[in-house]
Amino acid sequence: MAKLSVRAAAAQFDVSRPTLTKWLKSGKISGERQSPEDGGGWLIDSAELIRAGVKARSADKSQPVNFPGNAEADLTGFDRGLPGNAESEIKALQAELEIERARREAAEAIAEERGRHIDDLRRLLPPPDASPAERKPWWRW
For residues 48 and 3, what is the distance between their CA atoms, to the nearest angstrom? Predict the structure, then answer.
C-alpha cells in the first residue's frame, strides 16, 4: 500500500501526529525513517495503521472505509466456512464452559456458607482481654 508521511497519515486516519510518533517509537507500528536530505521524517505504510486497528476515513470523513482488516466492515452474507472439526470443537468448548460456570457457582456458594459459619464462630468466642499481659524479660541474667 501507499507510504504516507506522519502528517498525511494523521489526516487520512484521523489520528494525531504525536500519537503516530509515539507508536513509531514504541514499535506499535513500523515505518521508514527518511534521510536528512529528504526531510528526516517518517514514512508509514497505510497497511500498518490498518493492522494496528486504526480506522481509515473516507474522502468526506463521515464514514469509515471498510478495508478487509477493518473490524466494522460489512459482514452480511459472510459464510464462516470453519475448517474441519471447528464446529464440533466450538460446541465441546461451550459445554466445557457451562460445566466450569456451574463449578464456579458451587464454589462461590460454599465460600459464602463458610464465611457465615466463621462469623457465627467469632460471635461465640469470648471478647479479647482488655488488660495487657504482664511482660516477662527475655534475658534472665
Answer: 10
